[in-house]
Amino acid sequence: MAILITGGAGYIGSHTVTYFQQQEKEVVVVDNLQTGHRKSVEADHFYPLDIRDQEALDQVFKNHKIQSVIHFAASSLVGESMEKPYEYYHNNVYGMLCLLEVMKNNGVKNLVFSSTAAVYGEPENIPIQETDKTDPTNTYGETKLAMEKMMKWFDQAYGITYVSLRYFNAAGAHEKGHIGEAHDPETHLIPLVLQVPRKKRQQLFIFGDDYPTMDGTCVRDYIHVMDLASAHYLAQQYLVAGNRSDVFNLGNGNGYSVKEVVAAARNITGHNIPAEIKERRPGDPATLIASSEKATKILGWSPRYPTLEKIIEDAWRWHCREE
Ligand code: UFG
């Protein structure tokens, strides 16, 4: 039986495709290539379609015997989501509705979902636990929370069980350096930092140094993309074993400040990476750190690449290859 990976040409999706293939799974990829890259996927079966095209999606389920769906296909930029709520609700929420309906019609009973720490909004506690309040501060997080809730009711009505994985700051790249993070426009810290030694930008802007953190810059929990990939595999196995729907945070439980990220990147690249302090970016919480104890306990997940150095080293290998 095959695993259907929607959004499998995107950043986290393409690394997860590779991981499932390493586990000898047959993978079917669907991606509309709005932000994904065809060259990032070496799956046997690739469909360049939009999940909102229910007829086309249904045909994929008819062409293959699908055991589980891993759902990445969604828009994921916080800033953009504030400017384009229609597009975010349409792609994310309506996209999920179409997917669930097609799964239901084809009797596919489990779903691993790519969620985000943005569902929490401004945190109540650090580290953040799954039981903490969800109160998104942006459209992106709100759409992901709505998608989580849709799965809950589809589970209740039709027995489609799900695992929702709330990622903290995904970063790094496959060790081989053949796939990595390639957004356009790029908004994430680590790839932006690494663009400076690659001469794609002259300097980094640090958004605020007056936060209540040890050096005044924002603290985030960076998690290696291949550790996210392995969590999707464990979640899929968990569902296939007949376990109940659940929600898990995925992070390392360690926070690094923007300045610490820049310092680590300077060490790894040997480049001085000029950085200038700018205004705060609206909507940035000071500190976001995950408690992933639940994923460790229930899914048996533990990150293999927890250090910031390893994350940046792997990202750097990819940046050096990419033109
Ligand atoms: N930052 C800079 N300069 C830059 C880019 C980022 O100083 O040029 C700072 C940001 O202000 C933030 C930190 O670096 O403090 C990390 O920023 P990212 O944009 O890399 O990541 P975020 O923490 O803002 O967002 C991530 C995911 C989102 C998710 C969110 C959950 O990318 O998808 O975590 O809170 F919604």
Automatic annotation (TrEMBL):
Cofactor: NAD(+)
Keyword vocabulary terms for this entry: Carbohydrate metabolism, Galactose metabolism, Isomerase, NAD
Pathway membership, UniProt: Carbohydrate metabolism; galactose metabolism
Entries under CDD domains matching the protein: UDP_G4E_1_SDR_e
One GO BP annotation of this record: galactose catabolic process via UDP-galactose, Leloir pathway
Pfam families given in the database record: Epimerase
GO molecular function: UDP-glucose 4-epimerase activity
Annotated EC: 5.1.3.2
Catalytic activity: UDP-alpha-D-glucose = UDP-alpha-D-galactose
tRNA processing in keyword set: no
Residues in the signal sequence: none
The UniProt record lists the keyword NAD: yes
Top-level taxon of origin: Bacteria
Residue span, NAD-dependent epimerase/dehydratase domain: 3-251
Annotated PANTHER family: UDP-ARABINOSE 4-EPIMERASE 1, UDP-GLUCOSE 4-EPIMERASE
Classification via NCBIfam families: galE
Subunit text: Homodimer.
Family of this protein: Belongs to the NAD(P)-dependent epimerase/dehydratase family.
Name of this protein: UDP-glucose 4-epimerase
